[in-house]
Specification:
Elements lengths: L1 H32 L3 E6 L4 E4 L1 H8 L3 H4 L13 H14 L1 E9 L5 E12 L5 E9 L1 H22 L4 E5 L5 E4 L3 H5 L3 H5 L3 H4 L2 H18 L10 E8 L5 E12 L5 E10 L1 H34 L6 H11 L20
Antiparallel strand pairs: 1-2, 1-5, 3-4, 4-5, 6-7, 6-10, 8-9, 9-10
Helix pairs in contact: 10-11
Keywords: Kinase, Phosphoprotein, Transferase
GO molecular function: protein histidine kinase activity
Organism: marine sediment metagenome
Length: about 350
């Protein structure tokens, strides 16, 4: 009877081991053929397992690149604190999730959405299985949608102004159709032009200096993230004429406040500039008339003196004439009367 019982116990153990082996093989096959990233982390957030094929395809890593290393080592510095907290909370609560940037083997950053659940392994140690997927395209689409919504909002708020966007290398990435009303170019035409092709040389220099100053401010720790810079400039119309433009510029920023581009709103101020010039000319003409009246008043007072000699009249007249000149402070003249 003892032999029979022993044979029965061994048979059941073998069956259990075979079932376990088959189960592990099924999960291995599922894991290795999955499109998502599957990893197992220990309580120190170090990788103990990855489905290598998916990691290599999406992130460029071999198994030996990650096993035994902390997941935080590959997390973007700006996401590290939140990711570490999410892992701590997940191990404590049993599950969790986080969107973060994970470093690709070639150095660029990949947005992933990670979801995890804890479990105890055969030795009773707490582990977490993390399933992640690449959401870079979704993030790009979300950013484009956000920028598009912002553009339409600004266009609706500024219907008579041109909306432009530049990347951080000052390449124009967007121009609203209203640019045609100002410079005669279509959006597509202006976006394929360099700044110096539609700006006068003095304006081009002015813009470069202004943006250099703004980039310098961006490197400072304490700065106004909502600051706006107003620049008056001259741009060249498609027909060759000069258009006076007032541009108001600010930085586009990501959720962390980092500058990702430049947003500008430009309006044609040519008529305003012409009006200002006309006002200056009118003011100058008025000043000339006032000077002339002062001169005439002085002459009238000169002739009121009884017994004034002809020499005194001529001398007084010569003394009063400079006050009626347009620019008496910068003009000079030599006066001769009776060989003097």
């Amino acid at each position: 009877f003892m032999v029979e019982a022993l044979i029965q116990d061994i048979s059941q153990q073998k069956i259990a081991e075979q079932l376990l082996k088959e189960s592990e093989e099924k999960y291995r096959v599922i894991s290795e053929t999955a499109y998502d990233l599957i990893g197992i982390l220990n309580s120190k957030f170090k990788y103990e397992y990855i489905n290598e094929q998916a990691f290599k395809q999406i992130l460029g890593y071999e198994k030996e690149d990650l096993i035994g290393k902390s997941a935080l080592k590959f997390t973007h510095p700006d996401d590290m604190m939140e990711t570490a907290q999410a892992l701590r909370d997940g191990f404590k609560e049993g599950s969790g999730g986080k969107e973060l940037r994970f470093k690709h083997a070639d150095g660029h950053w990949v947005w992933i959405e990670a979801k995890g659940k804890t479990f105890h392994d055969i030795n009773g140690e707490l582990k977490a299985i993390i399933i992640s997927r690449d959401i870079s395209e979704r993030k790009i689409a979300d950013q484009k949608l956000k920028e598009s919504e912002e553009r339409y909002r600004l266009i609706s708020e500024n219907p008579e102004q041109n909306l432009v966007m530049y990347d951080m290398s000052l390449t124009m990435t967007y121009s609203s159709p209203f640019v045609y009303n100002i410079l005669g170019y279509t959006s597509e035409e202006i976006m394929n032009m360099r700044i110096d092709e539609y700006c006068t040389p003095s304006t081009y220099k002015l813009l470069l200096n202004a943006f250099r100053e703004e980039f310098k401010i961006e490197r400072m720790k304490d700065k106004d993230l909502r600051r706006i810079r107003t620049i008056e400039m001259e741009q060249i119309h498609k027909n060759g004429s000069i258009v006076n433009i007032e541009g108001r510029y600010t930085f586009l920023r990501d959720k962390d406040g980092k500058a990702t581009g430049i947003l500008g709103v430009a309006r044609d101020i040519t008529k305003r500039k012409q009006a200002e010039l006309k006002l200056r000319e009118t003011s100058l003409n008025l000043k000339e008339r006032v000077n002339e009246l002062i001169c005439l008043f002085g002459l009238s007072k000169l002739f009121e003196h009884p017994g004034i000699s002809i020499n005194e009249v001529f001398q007084g007249t010569l003394d009063l004439i400079p006050s009626a000149w347009q620019f008496p402070e910068i003009l000079s003249a030599k006066k001769r009367f009776n060989n003097r």
